[in-house]
Structure formats: C-alpha cells, structure tokens
Design the sequence.
C-alpha cells in the first residue's frame, strides 16, 4: 500500500496523458530536479510507462503514466519489483567481477511484452524503467526506448558530475564490421549432430574482432558448443584474463542462468508471468546477451567493446535468425526461458 502522506504531482504528457509523480516520505524531497528529468523523459518516451529511483534498494520516488484506474497496490507492486531488481543487479555485478570488464551499469530484462531497464547512477543508486504491454511494439521500438532511458541515466549521472559511460553503446550505432572474420575457436560438449554443427559454423562465420566475440548455444540449460575469437590479436587489451579462463567463466555464467532467471522471475512476478526471451548484462567493457530460442534453449553472446554493444546485439539477432531453423524443430514452441 502507498503511504497516506505520499505527495503526488500531475503534469500533462504527450497526447494529454497524465504523468503522476509519487514521492516516498522518507526521501524528504531530496531530488526534485531528478523527478522533473524523469517526468520529462516519460513525456518524450511513450513506450516507457514507469520510472523509479532507488538508493540502497529503497525507493526515492516513482514516475508513471499508468491509467488513473490502476490501484495503489499495483503501483506498489511495480515499486517493489524494482527494488528486487536493483538487488539482483548488484549481485550480478559482483559475480561478473572475475571477468575484469568493469562494473555492471545496464541490465535489460525482456519477458513477453514487458521490458525492464535497470541503470546504475552511482554504486548504490539505480534507476529502473518499465516498458509495459504495448500493442505492436517492435524490437526497434524497444531499442529506441532503451536508448532514451539510458540517455536519461547518463543525464542524471551528470548531475553528480559523473562521466558518460555510454551504456548500451548507443553513441555511434550502425557501423558495419571493418575487420575480417577472426579465426574462431570451437568448444563443444559431446558429439554434434549435423544440424548443430552447421549452426556452429554459421555462428563462427558471423564473429568479428571489432564486434561480436563469443557465441554459445545451450540446450536444456546445458552447454552444447561455443565459438569465439578471443585469441585474436585485436583483443590483446583484454588478456588480463586468459582466453581459456574467459571461456570457462562465460560457460559457467550460462550454466547458472536457470537459477538466475528463476530469481528474476520471482522478483517480477507481480509485473509479468511470461518467460524471459532476452536478458542483457552491460558492463563498462562490453556486454553479455542471453536470447532464448525456446524454453530451456538459449544463445549467449559477448562483446568486449563498449562502443559496439548495440551493434553486437543486432549481429547476434542475425545469428539467431540464421540458426533458429537448424536448432528449433518445426512445430516446436519457441522463445521463453521456461522451466
């Protein structure tokens, strides 16, 4: 339930939609300018319906364009879900430290028609945004909302005199790969059937040292194969972690994904009951992507270049489009983390 003394401020959004600003009483109106920035962002980004700021897991304020008929309990459920998500992001940040690719600064969770963005403002402060069910929303529209939300995160960071870290790699997107395909390293578990071997070859051919560096396929939550260009000389700057160890760490992250998604699904249970179709862990040097083909079967992608995070994910989508007919039998339900 919301507190009876919560303050609420309403302004007009795009097309006359109201923007309700809820301020938690313990925040003592510490961030009026940040609230204004978030309200302005909602007016300009119609796909995002809810934004909240959290400090050490506690909500400072929420901003939303939810229908006036939405109950206080529903708003409270969104706020609580955001608090749990920030806690999970801090946990994932700690677990990724051994990769030596910097702090986690952006997380994207896509589940059905709901997309959740979580961005790090400061070490103990996060901004959460939610794309709520929207008819006809395309991946390109979600990508635009992603870009707009993390532009807001960067703008808020500037209020604390913190640098622009380019979360999402959106500053200069759309550049084609300029390096020839690297020599790919193949790792597999057990013998590969012909169709899976073809899929591995396709994945290897679409890697590039200046864009997408690692792709793995997991079936029933277990690794089947991975291909990478981590030994390429263009990636020598990342050799503080040996390529073989990096492969082991990425494989281990994939093996833990079943437990991770169960925890995340529990955190978002009041917001969506759909399986995850996409998760992104964006660190200061690149990102890890998890895209599901069908329940229990997913593809992992990695780039180590921060300015290529957006481009590398679009390349990964091309990879998935190419291998899906080989890895997902006709007539089998696709997409979703599942059980």
Sequence:
């Amino acid at each position: 339930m919301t507190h009876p003394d919560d303050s609420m401020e309403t302004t007009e959004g795009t097309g006359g939609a109201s923007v309700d600003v809820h301020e938690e009483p313990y925040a003592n109106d510490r961030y009026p300018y940040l609230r204004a920035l978030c309200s302005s962002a909602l007016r300009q980004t119609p796909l995002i319906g809810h934004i909240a700021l959290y400090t050490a897991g506690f909500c400072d304020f929420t901003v939303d364009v939810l229908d006036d008929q939405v109950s206080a309990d529903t708003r409270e459920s969104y706020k609580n879900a955001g608090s749990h998500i920030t806690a999970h992001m801090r946990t994932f940040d700690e677990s990724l430290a051994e990769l030596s690719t910097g702090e986690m600064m952006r997380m994207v969770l896509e589940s059905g028609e709901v997309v959740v963005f979580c961005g790090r403002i400061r070490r103990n402060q996060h901004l959460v945004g939610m794309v709520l069910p929207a008819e006809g929303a395309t991946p390109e529209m979600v990508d635009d909302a992603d870009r707009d939300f993390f532009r807001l995160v960067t703008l808020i960071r500037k209020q604390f005199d913190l640098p622009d870290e380019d979360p999402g790699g959106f500053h200069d997107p759309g550049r084609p790969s300029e390096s020839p395909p690297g020599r790919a390293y193949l790792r597999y578990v057990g013998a590969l059937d012909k169709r899976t071997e073809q899929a591995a070859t396709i994945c290897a051919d679409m890697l590039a040292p200046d864009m997408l560096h690692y792709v793995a396929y997991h079936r029933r939550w277990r690794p089947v194969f991975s291909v990478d260009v981590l030994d390429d000389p263009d990636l020598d700057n990342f050799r503080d972690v040996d390529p073989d160890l990096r492969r082991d760490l990425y494989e281990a992250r994939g093996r833990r994904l079943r437990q991770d998604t169960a925890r995340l699904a529990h955190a978002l249970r009041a917001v969506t009951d759909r399986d995850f179709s996409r998760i992104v862990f964006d660190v200061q040097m690149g990102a890890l992507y998890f895209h599901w083909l069908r329940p229990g079967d997913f593809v992992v992608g990695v780039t180590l270049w921060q300015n290529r995070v957006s481009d590398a994910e679009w390349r990964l989508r091309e990879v998935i489009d190419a291998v899906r007919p080989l890895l997902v039998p006709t007539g089998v339900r696709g997409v979703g983390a599942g059980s």
